[in-house]
Specification:
Seed_Dev/Stress_Resp_Reg, mainly alpha, TGA_domain, sequence-specific DNA binding, Protein DOG1-like 4
Amino acid sequence: MAHPQPVLPNFHNFHESWLSTQQSFLQQLLDSAALQSNDKEDAQLRLIAQVLAHYQQYYDELSKAAAEDIFQVLSAPWLTSFERTFLWISGFKPSLLIRLLFAAVNDLTPAQSARLNEVRAEVKWKERELTDAMASLQETIAAPPMLELARRVGAGRLVDREICEMESAIEDLKMGMLGVADKADLLRGSTVMTVVECLNSDQMVRVLAAVVGFQLRVRRWGLQRD
């Protein structure tokens, strides 16, 4: 079944191109994990920096799209319906990174494991906080004053003052959602940086290979199901 063209075609096109590069990075990460050479660490550090910069580019573009239409970004019509089951405030849940890390890396030291378990607990708490904040904003749409204004819009009975109230309420909702989305992006970024600090280059390559591989598999499965 064909997907409807999203309202943000520029980001839709960027997303397709970005995914193609992800496929290339996956192969490089898998090759790097198996690499045996004297300059292995340097090569891995360069590749890690490239992959992280690629993810940063994605969220920079997503931020621009959100400023244009936060409602579209939160619903992400460029993703398949299966991909959207993993969607959390316009992106991935930071705790998913920790979960994939523990599955991909079996040589963590006790100190690394202890630190990462601390990070996982902190991240889950912050995720719940942001989830509640977004839910609270979304509940305002169903609040009686908003519903009454919406009904009057549908009936064409709004006066100028009520039109201003409606526009102001929508603008407040947009700004609130943008704020929560920005905080979610900051949490994603800080979680990644903390993981980078905890792991050596070989471990980080394996984690990134697991993350990119998971993302591309979910995309493939989603395309097959839709």
